[in-house]
Amino acid sequence: MDRIKKVFGIFCKSGILSLLLYGTLWAQGSMPASAAPSLKESLGFIGAALSTGLAAIGAGVAIAYVGSAAAAGISEKPENFGKMIIFLGLAEGIAIYGLITSILILNKM
Predict the structure, then answer these.
(1) Residues near 60 by beta carbon (within 8 Å), at least 6 away in sequence
(2) Among 21, 50, 83, 86, whose CB has the most other CB atoms within 10 angstroms?
(3) DSSP-assigned states of every residue in 39-71
(4) Would you say the pTM of this structure is higher than 0.70?
(5) Topology of 38-109 in CATH?
(6) Whether the Cβ atoms of residue 11 and residue 53 lie closer than 8 Å to each other
């Protein structure tokens, strides 16, 4: 869990740094005004990225816990393999829901 927090922190810091760099380049006039996205586009891209990224992180955490429990359960009762795979599939569905949400956001822009 500590590794996830470190990686997430690095991604957040790099994203904030790139937004600051992009904003200062645009404010200095070194970028043409037509290249600057509108507020709707900017927030749409941020929303799509957050929905996909956070859903993928949540699915990874869920699969880690469910997978370890499934491995322990299968080692004790091998006949429960099918039930454990269903739980892993449900945890994996979280990432798919985030991806679908980001696709819907990008289609509205």
Answers:
(1) 4, 95
(2) 50
(3) HHHHHHHHHHHHHHHHHHHHHHHHHHHHHHHHH
(4) no
(5) F1FO ATP Synthase (1.20.20)
(6) yes
Report the percent of the chain where pLDDT is more than 90: 1
**3-state helix/strand/coil string of 78-90:** HHHHHHHHHHHHH
- pLDDT at residue number 92: 87
Q: What is the pLDDT of residue 26?
A: 59
- Residue found by looking up tokens 């900017």 in the block: 42
| CB neighbourhood size of 17 (10 A) | 10
* Largest CA-CA distance found in the chain, in angstroms, rounded: 66
